[in-house]
Design brief:
One of its GO terms (molecular function) is copper ion binding. Residues 10-63 form the Plastocyanin-like domain. This is Multicopper oxidase. The chain starts with a strand and ends in a 9-residue tail after the last helix. The radius of gyration is 17 Å and the shape is flat. The longest helix has 5 residues, at 49-53. It contains four helices and five strands, in the order ββββαβααα. The strands form two sheets. Strands 2-1-3 form a three-stranded antiparallel sheet, with no helix packed on it. A two-stranded antiparallel ribbon has the order 4-5. The protein has a domain at 1-35. Helix content is 19%, strand content 22%. With 95 residues, it is α+β, with helices and mostly antiparallel strands.
């Protein structure tokens, strides 16, 4: 991912930002940008295991409509991916 604004600086750099696979975040804020090479749900999380349970993780939904072209959705999907129920892509029939 590219670090647009690190937690240690107040200025941003969207022109030629540094790239890292991990970045620190604190109260001052960090802004990142990343390219997705696939569609569907992607985990975005802290590398410290217990932080995930403290809420420092999220799921980024990338092009859910295109994702449906490659995945057979079942009713069990709704339990695994609750945001799915709220998206336009959820308006499908189950096979």
């Amino acid at each position: 991912m590219q670090v647009i604004k690190p937690m240690t600086l107040n200025n941003t750099n969207a022109v030629n930002p540094i790239s890292h696979d991990a970045v620190g975040v604190r109260g001052s804020g960090t802004t990142t940008r990343f390219k997705t090479d696939s569609t569907g749900p992607l985990a975005f999380h802290c590398r410290i295991f217990w932080h995930k349970f403290a809420g420092l993780a999220s799921v980024q939904s990338v092009d859910p409509v295109d994702f449906l072209k490659n995945v057979q959705v079942t009713p069990a999907w709704e339990g695994l991916y609750p945001a799915w129920v709220l998206s336009e892509a959820a308006d499908v029939s189950y096979e």
